[in-house]
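Thread title: Can someone regenerate the structure for this chain?

I was given the following input by a collaborator and told the matching structure tokens would be attached. They weren't. Posting the sequence so someone can regenerate them.
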Amino acid sequence: MRQRAIGMTVLTLAAGLWLAPAFAQSSDPPAATSPAKPAKPVRPPPAAKSPGGYYIEFRAARIGLYGHSYVAYGRLDRQGNAETTTYADLHPVGNYAVMAIGHFVPVPANTEWDPEVLDLPIAHKYRVKLNDSQYDNLLAAVKRANADTAYWNAVTNNCNHYVGQLAEAVGLRVPMAFHLSMGFIPDLQEMNEASSPPMATPAQPAKPTSKKPAPKPADPTSSLPATDASAR
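Best answer:
Regenerated them for you:
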């Protein structure tokens, strides 16, 4: 009995060892998980375009003997009115004494907008409507001009020079910068409006002339003398 019990135990252990590898081999391996793909960066939506377009307005303010040139620019609404307005100019840093010195030697300058300029009466203004491309060029030109403001000088780098750079950026012709500001802006307008040829008046079609029909040729027999049929 004892030997029989030992034999049964050995058979049971052997069967267990045989079933364990068989069960392990029949089990399906876990499915391999693919690495998660990185999410694509979300592109920012394009900037909304102005429904009415854009504009730049060149202004000449009355101050001192020759005035001051500056610009206003921004978006237009559907009715063509200014929806947003940003101002830009170049001016010397300091008081009128510094400006007087700037007529002879360069003096420090900046483009930080002074709201008091808007209190000055406007001698002349000239507005030009811009498309998207022109407006982008204008913004880039403002950035460049603001970065290049090392000095102000009445002859070599004044407010007209600054305004002229912005005018050229949007495709306008520019008069000489050595100019009184109160004359520079009117000349800018006149130069560009004169360079645009007027629209040609369409030629009207010629009116058809009523021709009288040509007279029929005369019957040659009508010119012969009449004969008496009874004389034949």
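Residues 204 and 210 are 18 Å apart (CA to CA).
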